[in-house]
Amino acid sequence: MTVFLASVGFGLVTASVLAIAAVGFTLQFAVTDVLNLAYGAVMIAGAFLAYVLNSHGVNIWIGLVVAVAACAAGSVLLNACVYAPFQRRGAAPITMVIVSLGMTLIIEFGVQAAAGGTSVSYRMSQGPSVTADGFTLTAVQFVVIGLSLLVMAGTYTLLRYTRLGKAMRATAANRMLARNCGIRTGRVITATWAISGGLCGLAGVVFAMDAGSFDATSTDLFLVLILAATFLGGPGQAYGAMLGAVIIGLATEVSAAYITPSYKYVIAFVALLVMLGVRPTGLLGKAAG
Amino acid sequence: MKFTSPATGRRRRAWILAAVIPAAALAALTGCSSSSSGSTSAPAASAPASGAPASGAPASGAPASGAAASQPTGSPLTVADVAPFSGPDAALGPTYLASCYGATSAINAAGGVDGHPLNCKTVDTRGDPADAVPAVNQMFASTSNLALVIGCTSDEAAAVVPIINAHKMAMFCMTGQSEFDSVHFPYFYRLVPPDLEESYAMVAIAQQLHYQRIALAFGNDIGSQTFIQPAIAALKKAGMTLATDQSLDLNATTFRTEAEAIVQSHPDAIMTEALGSADPTLFSEIQQLNGGKMIPIIGTSAAISPPFFKAAAAAVGASTLASDFHADNLVTETSGPAFQAFSAALLAQQGKVPGATGNFTTYLSAPGGVHLYDGINLAALAMVMSKSTDPSVYGPDLLTIGNGAPGATVCYSFASCATLLGAGKAIRYEGPGGPTNFDSYHDSTGIFQIDTYSANGQVNVVGNLTAAQLRALAG
Asked: What band does A1 get if pLDDT is binned at 50, 70 and 90?
């Protein structure tokens, strides 16, 4: 029972980081039609920006805010300068994936060239630990879980109750129809890049806080987990991404406690494959036709 | 901002594209050239900027001379640092590059190799054979003046050593893989011990510190996995208990489950090698799950490097690392003429070596820093002695200079040794790594010491391990 509770605790932390990232990723995918594989690279760029500030004496929480703003702006630029021109020329989805893969390498190696290939850590206290029957979490990990809940609630509110959220949903459902209904889809898409980019920056910094030590390539595998959470929940489904993140996070850590940890990601993907075999559109995805 | 309006906006952002895409491309090129695709020249401090290629060319008639020698004017020769500069083991490449910069600048200051200046080139293997093979092939295709290869860690040695050997290029490799104990590659040289000896050394450290229950936590890369079986066998032979054996996926972002398993197994100490961010992350998670208290760590010699200290100290605190961390390391000089020449050469490169971070003095104890400095000096002296830059010609002289012929004069730096060679004397080079004794497989291994860190990153020698201790643990 102790081992189970401990792994559930670890799983919740992993799920929290994953949920922040996956919600941003899936919003981006749903509204903009870009499967942006550079998302992980932008995450780590945000994490390094916060590191640079932190290493110059800036509080990491201020660094987090700056990273969120910078990643929001960076993502808008990324779309305006790279993805949108390709889309205007009618690039096929697979072309966009290849373009985003190229941007991954450009951003990741750019960060590596600037920051070096070695691991870094934030100067921050993890705060006191809370231990209860094998369940051990630090204050920072509680904050990460809290931030994740806040993001989920905020996303729900945005999509459900705001004009922008409704416009985003309409654009995601049918861009042409939304435009014909008077929605300025261009602005909606730009706003989506900004919001999802901000979430990407937030995810990057909390990812780095959680990992304790990170380098320019640290999000390579994490991006695969983001994809898994996204597709498990149903691509383009924000609530599905939250659910997918919780399942993937818990599956990796709980399975690691009972099987060898080397296979924890394998278990997560077996779960994904089984789920997609049963329900190809994901947990909350709409059935075709 | 309004999101609903009758208007449908279309904007041209050609001007942004025109400005930003070239900038992005430039950034990409910078990133690739400096670390990823890895074939960029790293100029040695005093090397001339250019010169005609001279691979395998006979050395010119210019005499090698001592410290007062003039600047070399011949065509430059290249020493290639074939090692990870990115990926989990990215700290290794800059460590070797520091020794390359130090050695080549000292050689160039002493007139070069018969008038040929040496420079350094980085070849990024990313610590992965799949990336290493094309990188090495590209190196040979693009480097006509190659004179020596250094690096070739356990991550990629099995894949690249046969290729380098097939090109008849001399190499000093930092691999401990046991397959090189008994397979003869004529152009392969090694000044570091087989990994199994290092495993014994780690167990011997645990013995000296009176630990009984040992947890193993090694990375899932080739270089780290080779320690496990010898360590388990040695633990059994020493009468110790294996508390748990955890394999760490170097691409993973957290190791909480592994850390929890280690904490739950109540070890007295943890033996580990998981480079990159893996070990620092594991340490911080163990500290967190162990009520804020660190479990003592025994690392390998690869942990004696500034990037490792910087990352691990940031993760658990420098004072914690100073009190709870030990590592085996080959015995190296810490004083005397060889060390003085080495430290002067290396410290002169402080702030000049790309990717070298942290306390630069740690490189004075880093195995790669010390032994590759010696390897470059041995090769350069062999070139001087044989009057050739062709490895097939200077190779035998390398062994002669390393092992010493009867009556040879012992010398401690390239400058002093080259002067003796110029005077027609037989020499034996003894660098900061101590005397070398190459066997028929060109392996020369030394004895071990126990290192710790100070809170400022300084490396301290706190004990020695005898050959008898290691023999007692050998299977």
From this structure: low
Residue B367 amino acid letter: P
Please write the tens of the pLDDT for every residue from B186-218. 999 998 878 888 999 999 999 999 999 999 999
Tell me if B10 is assigned to some domain: no
CB atoms within 10 A of CB B319: 11
Given 1.25.10, 2.40.30, 1.10.3470, 1.10.287, which CATH number is that of A2-278? 1.10.3470
Number of inter-chain CB pairs under 8 A, A vs B: 194
Rg of chain B in Å (alpha carbons): 24
Interchain CB distance below 8 Å, B355 and A118: yes
Residue B145 lies in a domain: yes
Q: Which residues pair with B241 in a beta bridge?
A: B213
Report chain A residues whose CB lies below 8 A from the CB of B93.
117
Contact B263, B213 (CB under 8 A): no
Residue of B nearest to A107 (CA): B28
Minimal Cα distance from A256: which residue of B? B257
Assembly ipTM: 0.73
How many domains is chain B partitioned into structurally? 2
CA neighbours closer than 13 Å in the CB half-sphere of residue B214: 30
Tell me if chain A has a CB within 8 Å of the CB of B18: no
Q: Do A261 and B90 touch (CB under 8 A)?
A: no
Enter the tokens of residue B419: 């002067």
Token code pair at residue B194: 């087989």
B254 and A211 within 8 Å at the Cβ level: the answer is yes
Is B448 part of any domain?
yes
Domain ranges (residues) in chain A: 2-278
What integer is the mean pLDDT of B15-42?
38
Mutation site for A-interface testing, chosen from B5, B246, B256, B320 by largest number of A Cβ within 10 Å: B256
Query: Hey, are the CB atoms on B254 and A84 less than 8 Å from each other?
Result: no
Interior/surface letters B163-177, b for 16+ CB within 10 angstroms, e for the rest: ebbebebbbbbbbbb
Rounded to the nearest angstrom, the minimum Cα separation between B338 and chain A is 30
Q: Give long-range contacts, CB 8 A cutoff, 24+ apart: B137-144.
A: B137/B163, B138/B37, B138/B39, B139/B39, B139/B80, B139/B82, B140/B167, B140/B169, B142/B39, B143/B39, B143/B55, B143/B78, B143/B80, B144/B53, B144/B55
Give how far B217 is from chain A: nearest CA, Å: 12
Q: Which of A121, A175, A190 to substitute to test the interface with B, most B CBs within 10 Å?
A: A121
Statement to judge: residues B301 and B167 lie in one domain: no
Sequence-ordered alpha helix ranges (H) in chain A: 2-32, 39-55, 60-78, 84-88, 93-115, 139-161, 163-173, 175-180, 185-211, 219-233, 238-258, 264-278
| Residue with tokens 């008077």, as numbered in its chain | A182
Q: Which two tokens stand for residue A268?
A: 């997560």
pLDDT in tens, B242-266: 999 999 988 888 898 899 889 999 9
CATH number at residue B145: 3.40.50.2300
Which residue is listed with tokens 């250094």? B150
Residues of B in contact with A217 (CB under 8 A): 86-88
In tens, the pLDDT along B369-404 reads 899 999 999 999 999 999 999 999 999 999 999 998
What's the confidence (pLDDT) of residue A260?
Answer: 74
pLDDT digits (tens, 9 = 90+) for B140-166: 999 989 999 999 998 899 999 999 999
